[in-house]
Amino acid sequence: MSTNLVAAVINNNLKDAKKFIETGVNVNQTDSSGNSLLLVSSANGQSEMVKLLLDAGADKLFHI
Questions:
Q1: Beta bridge partners of 30
Q2: What is the pTM of this model?
Q3: Nearest partner of 19 among 1, 46, 37, judged by Cα
Q4: Residue 53 to residue 35: CA distance in whole angstroms
């Protein structure tokens, strides 16, 4: 299910991302390039996704 969260973040699908986060998946995971989901959403200007990930406990310093 973790890769489903990655896909939801990449596609900026807030509804699915919320659903996967509610199941307890790790929000501090990476995409296939090794970028954190927080970095991916931030770099793509997905402010609502950034907020969702931060509210779910995403580590701001992950992979720095």
A1: 36
A2: 0.91
A3: 1
A4: 14
Residue 46, both tokens: 């997905």
Residue 21 φ then ψ, to 5° = -65, -40
Superfamily of domain covering 2-55: Ankyrin repeat-containing domain (1.25.40.20)
Tokens 């969260």 appear where?
5
Q: State how far the alpha carbon of 45 is from the alpha carbons of 24, 25, 49, in Å.
A: 25, 23, 9
Q: How confident is the model at residue 3 (pLDDT cuts 50, 70, 90)?
A: confident
Q: What is the largest CA-CA distance in the chain?
A: 28
